[in-house]
Amino acid sequence: MLELKNIERFYQNGALKTYVLRYVNAHVAEGEFVSIMGPSGSGKSTLLHIMGMLDEATEGEYWFLGEAVHKFKERRRTELYQQYIGFVFQAYHLIDDLTVYENLETPLLYKKVPSAERKSRIADVLDRFNIVAKKDLFPSQLSGGQQQLVGVARALIGRPKLILADEPTGNLQSPQAKEIMEIFQKLNEEDGVTIIQVTHSEANARYGQRILHLSDGRVEREELVKKQ
Amino acid sequence: MLELKNIERFYQNGALKTYVLRYVNAHVAEGEFVSIMGPSGSGKSTLLHIMGMLDEATEGEYWFLGEAVHKFKERRRTELYQQYIGFVFQAYHLIDDLTVYENLETPLLYKKVPSAERKSRIADVLDRFNIVAKKDLFPSQLSGGQQQLVGVARALIGRPKLILADEPTGNLQSPQAKEIMEIFQKLNEEDGVTIIQVTHSEANARYGQRILHLSDGRVEREELVKKQ
Ligand SMILES: Nc1ncnc2c1ncn2[C@@H]1O[C@H](COP(=O)(O)OP(=O)(O)OP(=O)(O)O)[C@@H](O)[C@H]1O
Ligand SMILES: Nc1ncnc2c1ncn2[C@@H]1O[C@H](COP(=O)(O)OP(=O)(O)OP(=O)(O)O)[C@@H](O)[C@H]1O
Ligand SMILES: [Mg+2]
Ligand SMILES: [Mg+2]
């Protein structure tokens, strides 16, 4: 599904060059469920943004569904993102002046889903996440965990081929966190959705098949998840 | 230290009245370390904001260090907040156009701490949290966990009498989360700082002495933490 070759990402602040990712090589096949773990600042969110074409590497190649993304202009990357990817952001990034309903509708508008189908998918996801009562509220009127749930729901509602989830359960209680991981697992096992999650939870990482351990911007080691 | 009597908080959206807190009674003595737990949307952040005088109850009394806060104007509440309280926000709320250094300096300016003392306290906390290299960056240039650490550091740097922490370790790896909880424990046991934390982590709750379990805006039950 996607392949990163010798990816580098640095930031230039005046004279100071900070390498955030270096010599990163990764391959994720369609239908895989992979976790990325590592200390704060090790480059996990940066790596996920590059995979999601929301950021560009400063060096290296990124192949997505056989296409050379590193050669594309922003317009083409945005098209691919809207068509194939559902992204759960670490800080949610809901649109403040859209209601919950409108935030959930946005990915469906990009995919040109017809009106009746949009209504039914939004109703379905509001119901499954138990947030029907919140549909006309704005993000600032929701609790932290509710905002996170809307962020997850928004990433799934367009039925993407690839889900990129950055700490999707950080603000949730264990029962709700478990619910989210079971939804991911079901999408992966039954619908063949490829999932790459950043997590600092060992429990969450066990839902996947493989773990990439990042440290200081490099993939320090890979671990296979042993199922009991 | 603080006492809440029959606290109620509702929101009015048009004709709809949503009760977020109801019949809440709570007493926290100076030097206590209390945790607040409960499902998403149960009112934990709302309760913490009322305790921190950042929000007002719609009914009931709030006594803080023997003073009737529910009778005060905003100016007096802000004074008390700046003088006695360090607040760790669930969504960090760092000031985007101030650097890390300036964000950390802000509480010290409110407390009229002299310049040399400010410099030394900021240097000390940057060092302890291992973020010296980030001091001149802006919050948007930090990782999620780094922003959370700066939020915690900013709450502690003014040496408050009362720390109110809303999910202070949600975006941190276990070793760093443990470090934060040990800092809290030390401040509580050695300096008598009163600590009230909202957490969904059982492990974090064990650092305190008592747990208030919230459900649908009420204190459903209290639990004493049994030390081994
Ligand atoms: N302005 C508002 N209008 C309507 N409802 C609101 C408003 N602000 C907050 N709420 C509601 O208050 C309830 C409690 O919110 P609060 O942030 O205290 O929950 P919480 O227990 O901290 O949850 P979490 O664990 O998800 O952070 C939520 O259901 C939220 O939708
Ligand atoms: N604009 C920027 N300028 C300089 N450094 C930056 C910039 N943006 C990000 N960084 C740095 O990139 C590093 C990696 O950030 P990233 O968000 O990928 O970490 P992370 O592994 O997701 O951490 P966390 O677990 O805390 O979320 C951090 O040290 C951060 O300070
Ligand atoms: Mg991150
Ligand atoms: Mg909250």
Structure summarized in a few sentences:
Two copies of one chain form a homodimer. Chain A has 228 residues and is of the alpha/beta class. Helix content of chain A is 35%, strand content 29%.
Characterise this structure:
- The structure is a homodimer of 228-residue chains.
- Chain A is of the alpha/beta class.
- The first copy, chain A, is 35% helix and 29% strand.
- The first copy, chain A, has seven helices and ten strands.
- Chain A has helices spanning 44-51, 74-84, 100-110, 115-128, 144-156, 174-191, 202-205; strands at 2-13, 16-28, 33-37, 59-64, 67-68, 85-88, 162-166, 194-198, 210-215, 218-224.
- The first copy, chain A, has a six-stranded mixed sheet, with helices on both faces.
- The radius of gyration of chain A is 18 Å and the shape is globular.
- In chain A, 43% of the residues are buried.
- The interface between A and B is medium-sized, with 28 and 28 residues.
- The structure holds adenosine-5'-triphosphate (2 copies) and magnesium ion (MG) (2 copies).
- One adenosine-5'-triphosphate (ATP) sits between chains A (11, 13, 18, 20, 38, 40-46, 90) and B (134, 137, 141-146, 171).
Indicate the topology.
The structure is a homodimer of 228-residue chains.
Chain A: E1 2-13, E2 16-28, E3 33-37, H1 44-51, E4 59-64, E5 67-68, H2 74-84, E6 85-88, H3 100-110, H4 115-128, H5 144-156, E7 162-166, H6 174-191, E8 194-198, H7 202-205, E9 210-215, E10 218-224
Parallel strand pairs in A: 3-8, 3-9, 6-7, 7-8
Antiparallel strand pairs in A: 1-2, 1-4, 4-5, 9-10
Helix pairs in contact in A: 3-4, 3-5
Bound molecules: adenosine-5'-triphosphate (2 copies) and magnesium ion (2 copies).
